[in-house]
Amino acid sequence: MSEQALTDPEARPVLGESRARVLDVLRAAGDPVGVQDIAEQVGLHPNTARFHLDGLVDAGLAERRTEERSQPGRPRTVYAATAADAPAGQRSYRLLAEMLTSLVADTMPEPGKAAETAGEAWGRYLAERPAPSQRVDAAEAVRRLSTVLADAGFAPDEVADADRPVIRLRHCPFREVAEQHRDVVCSLHLGLMRGVLDEVRAPLKADRLEPFVEPSLCLAHLAPASARARGRRAR
């Protein structure tokens, strides 16, 4: 991969559907708005809304501020869209991803396992935990997982067989890095799916991820979770 591809300041960010909607709400608001307000207007979990807001900040399309308050209490973090013609400056997040992934791959005794553990934590963070009384069946678990994957930019297809599903992922948001460090990045993605399914107390588990079966297609294989695992999730 060339240095120009990693650091090209003329490259324009490509926004997924959810992130584009978040940006539209920011631009329509005029005044800075908080995470909860954005989440309610766009119909996202607050953690997912924050994820997209921070992504817009990284892309130079929004800015993060501390709300001015005249009353006691901790001030909120609020977000505002940047001016359309504001100079964004050079940002090299792909280069940063390459550097950090190389660090994990070169220094961790089990880089794949470390990446999977980190992915699980992010999966739990991004998923919306159902109410204690709510039972999540296989179809609902696939729907919830697919929503998180879609919001993260994986472009998942709809799943026909919810009992032993395979989710076809049409886009890898970290493809260039994954091609260089497949063990780390694909393990991170597998962990992400496992974390989501664990958080929603799904009767399914992410069994394995089959990367790049076609140039723009990965397959996420799900399988029934053990009764013991389901019992731990219900606590």
TrEMBL record:
InterPro entries documented for this protein: ArsR-like_HTH, WH-like_DNA-bd_sf, WH_DNA-bd_sf
Gene3D superfamilies the UniProt entry points to: Winged helix-like DNA-binding domain superfamily/Winged helix DNA-binding domain
Signal peptide coordinates: none
SUPFAM superfamilies: Winged helix' DNA-binding domain
Protein name as it appears in the record: Helix-turn-helix domain-containing protein
